[in-house]
C-alpha cells in the first residue's frame, strides 16, 4: 500500500491547482497511491477549513484521510476545534503551518496543539525549511521541533518537505536522531541527487515518509524518487506506506 502523507484540500488558482476530487484521484492512480492524507490551510477560520476537509474526504473515504488544521491567531478556539475535528469530523492528524502565520514554532502559542497530539497519539505535520537566504524569518527550522518532541513524546511530529534545502535535510536528520517521535516527509521542490538515500542513511528507513504535496505537485515525481533510490526494497515499502500506516494506526 502507498500512502501519501501530504495533500491539500482547496484550490490554488495562482498556479492552476484546483480542488477536483476526480483529477486528484486520477493523479493518485497514475502514481499507484492508495490513500492520501489531506488538509485545508486556506481559511483563517479553522472550523470552515476542517468542515471542507471532512466533506471532501466523505466523497471518497476509502481513498482520503483528513487532518485537522488550527490557527495560532485564535488560540482561544484551538482546543475546542481540535476536539471537534477529531471527535465529530473524524480527522486523524493535525496540520500546522508556522511560516504561513508568521509565528515561529518556538512560540508557546503552539503548545496546546502538541499537547493534544500527545494525549490523542496523533501525528502533527508541519512545513519546515532549512537555513537559506530566501527564508527570512525562518519560523519552521527543523531543530525548533526538538523541544516539543521531547516535551510531548506521544506526539509524532512529521517534518514536511524534509526541510526543503540541503541544510534543512541535514537538520531534519539531526532532529530525527535526537527524538524517536520525529519523522521526515519527503515532498519538496528542491530535489537534490541522493536526497532519499541521505535521509535513509541519516535518520533510518523507519523514520521517512512519502508525501507529494498534491495537487501542487504530481505525485509520480516523488514515488519515482523513492522507487529509483539506491535503497533496499524493504526500505522503499516502509517509506511508501508502512511507516505512515503505523503512525495512522492502520496496521
SSE layout and pairings?
Elements lengths: L2 E6 L12 H10 L4 E5 L6 H14 L4 E3 L1 E2 L5 H14 L5 E3 L1 H4 L9 H10 L2 E5 L18 H6 L4 E5 L5 H13 L3 E4 L9 H9 L4 E2 L9 H9 L5 H15 L4
Parallel strand pairs: 1-2, 2-3, 4-5, 5-6, 6-7, 7-8, 8-9
Describe the structure.
The structure is a single chain. The protein is of the alpha/beta class and 251 residues long. Helix content is 41%, strand content 14%. Strand 7 (156-160), helix 7 and strand 8 (182-185) form a beta-alpha-beta unit. Helix 7 runs parallel beside helix 8 (195-203). The longest helix has 15 residues, at 233-247. The termini are close together.
3D shape: globular
User: DSSP strand (E) fraction?
Assistant: 5-15%
User: What is the β-strand count?
Assistant: 9
Structural class computed from helices and strand pairing: alpha/beta
- Going across the biggest sheet, name each strand in turn: 4-5-6-7-8-9
Mean pLDDT across all residues, rounded? Answer: 94
Query: What is the string of helix and strand elements?
Result: EHEHEEHEHHEHEHEHEHH
> Quick one: CATH class?
Alpha Beta
In terms of per-residue confidence, which ranges show pLDDT below 50 for 5 or more consecutive residues? Answer: none
CATH topology grouping: TIM Barrel
Tell me the count of domains: 1
What is the CATH superfamily classification? Metal-dependent hydrolases
Determine Rg (CA atoms, Å): 16 Å
Number of helices: 10
CATH architecture: Alpha-Beta Barrel
Helical residues, percent: 40-55%
Query: What is the rounded distance between the termini?
Result: 11 Å
Sheet of most strands: 6 strands, parallel
